[in-house]
C-alpha cells in the first residue's frame, strides 16, 4: 500500500477509530458512561456543536474559516427569545426572524470575502466581536426566560429502545443527511470542492466562484440559526453568554472529522463523528471528575493533533 493510500484510509477511518477508542477508554474509567441516560446527555450536548459544524465544514471546504459561528448563534438565540417573550411576536415569526438574522450575518461575511476580498479569518474575527457586542446590547447581559413551548420543543425527547433521544438530535441527523446529499450529488456541491481545491482554476473553468462562496456563507449562517434554536431548546433560556467556546469546538470537530483546513477535501459526515469525539471527551472527563479547564486544554491538544495529521496526510498525497 502506498503512502498516499495510507493517508486516504487514515482520513476515512481515523475519526471513527478515534471515537471508538475514546468510548472504550471512558467506559473503562466510569461505569456510568455506557448508560442510556448518559448517551442521551451526550447527544443533547453534541447537537448544538454538530449543527454549527455543518456550516463550519462548508466554509472550511472552500479553504476559509468562520470564527464568528458561536457568537452569531448567540445573537440569533437572543433575537428569537426576546421577540417571542418580550416583543409579543408569534413564536414561529420569532424563530424565522432569528434564522434571518444569522443568515444575514453569513451573507455579510460572504460579501466581505467575495466583493472586498478580505481574508475569511479577519472578516469572521470582526463579525465575531460585532455579534458579541450586539448580543450584550440587546439582551442587557440578562438571560431571557418564560419562553413559549415552540422554542423549547426540540429539547423534548422520545425513546429509541431504552435511550431517550432529543428531537433536536434527530434534526441534526436529518441536516447531516441533507448536507451529505447536496455535497455529493449536486453540481453546487462539486463546485464547493472545486473552489476549495483551486479557486482560480475553478473560475477559469466557468464556475462563478463568488456566487459559490456567497451561498456557502449564507447557508452556514442558516445553520447557525438552527443551532441557536437547538441551544435555546436544550437550556430552556436565551443565554447571552452562549457560544463563547463553540468556534474552537466546531473547528476541532471539523478537522477531527477529516476535513482539510486547506480546503477541497473532506466528508460532511466526518464532522458529525468529530463532534461526537469532542462530546465524548467532554462527557467522559466530567464523569472522571476532571476540571473544565483541563477539558478545554484537551480540546486544544486534539485540534493541534488533528491539524498535524491533516498536514502529514496532505504532504503524503
CATH architecture: Orthogonal Bundle
What is the fold-level CATH name, i.e. the topology?
ABC transporter involved in vitamin B12 uptake, BtuC
How many domains comprise the coordinates?
1
Distance between the termini: 13 Å
Number of helical regions: 13
Q: How do the strands of the widest beta sheet line up side by side?
A: 1-2
Poorly predicted runs:
none
Question: Which percent range describes the beta-strand content?
Answer: under 5%
Anisotropy-based shape: globular
Return the CATH class. Answer: Mainly Alpha
Based on secondary structure, the structural category is mainly alpha
Q: Average pLDDT across residues?
A: 89
What is the helix fraction of residues, given as a range?
over 70%
Radius of gyration equals 19 Å
Give the oligomeric state of the chains in this entry, treating copies of one chain as homo and distinct chains as hetero. single chain
Count the beta strands. 2
Sheet with the most strands, sense and barrel status? 2 strands, antiparallel
Taken in chain order, the helices and strands follow as HHHHHHEEHHHHHHH
Layout of secondary structure:
Elements: H1 3-29, H2 36-61, H3 69-85, H4 91-114, H5 120-139, H6 149-152, E1 157-160, E2 163-166, H7 167-185, H8 187-197, H9 199-204, H10 209-235, H11 246-256, H12 268-287, H13 292-316
Antiparallel strand pairs: 1-2
Amino acid at each position: 500500500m502506498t503512502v498516499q493510500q495510507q493517508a486516504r484510509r487514515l482520513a476515512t477511518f481515523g475519526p471513527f477509530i478515534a471515537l471508538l477508542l475514546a468510548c472504550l477508554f471512558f467506559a473503562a474509567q466510569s461505569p456510568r458512561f455506557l448508560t442510556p441516560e448518559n448517551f442521551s446527555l451526550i447527544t443533547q450536548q453534541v447537537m448544538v456543536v454538530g449543527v454549527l459544524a455543518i456550516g463550519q465544514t462548508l466554509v472550511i471546504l472552500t479553504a476559509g474559516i468562520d470564527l464568528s459561528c458561536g457568537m452569531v448563534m448567540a445573537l440569533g438565540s437572543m433575537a428569537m427569545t426576546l421577540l417571542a417573550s418580550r416583543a409579543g411576536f408569534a413564536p414561529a415569526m420569532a424563530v424565522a426572524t432569528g434564522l434571518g438574522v444569522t443568515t444575514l450575518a453569513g451573507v455579510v461575511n460572504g460579501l466581505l470575502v467575495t466583493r472586498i476580498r478580505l481574508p475569511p479569518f479577519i472578516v469572521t474575527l470582526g463579525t465575531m466581536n460585532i455579534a458579541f457586542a450586539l448580543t450584550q446590547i440587546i439582551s442587557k447581559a440578562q438571560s431571557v426566560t418564560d419562553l413559549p413551548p415552540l422554542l423549547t420543543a426540540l429539547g423534548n425527547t422520545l425513546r429509541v429502545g431504552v435511550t431517550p433521544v432529543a428531537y433536536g438530535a434527530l434534526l441534526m441527523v436529518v441536516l447531516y443527511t441533507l448536507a451529505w446529499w447536496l455535497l455529493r450529488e449536486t453540481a453546487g456541491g462539486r463546485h464547493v470542492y472545486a473552489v476549495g481545491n483551486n479557486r482560480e482554476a475553478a473560475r477559469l473553468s466557468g464556475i462563478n466562484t463568488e456566487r459559490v462562496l456567497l451561498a456557502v456563507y449564507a447557508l452556514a449562517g442558516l445553520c447557525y440559526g438552527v443551532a441557536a434554536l437547538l441551544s435555546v431548546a436544550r437550556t430552556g433560556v436565551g443565554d447571552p453568554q452562549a457560544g463563547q467556546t463553540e468556534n474552537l469546538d466546531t473547528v476541532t470537530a471539523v478537522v477531527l472529522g477529516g476535513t482539510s483546513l486547506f480546503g477541497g477535501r473532506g466528508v460532511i459526515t466526518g464532522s458529525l463523528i468529530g463532534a461526537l469525539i469532542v462530546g465524548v471527551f467532554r462527557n467522559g472527563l466530567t464523569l472522571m471528575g476532571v476540571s473544565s479547564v483541563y477539558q478545554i486544554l484537551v480540546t486544544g491538544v486534539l485540534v493541534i493533533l488533528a491539524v498535524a495529521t491533516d498536514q502529514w496526510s496532505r504532504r503524503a498525497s
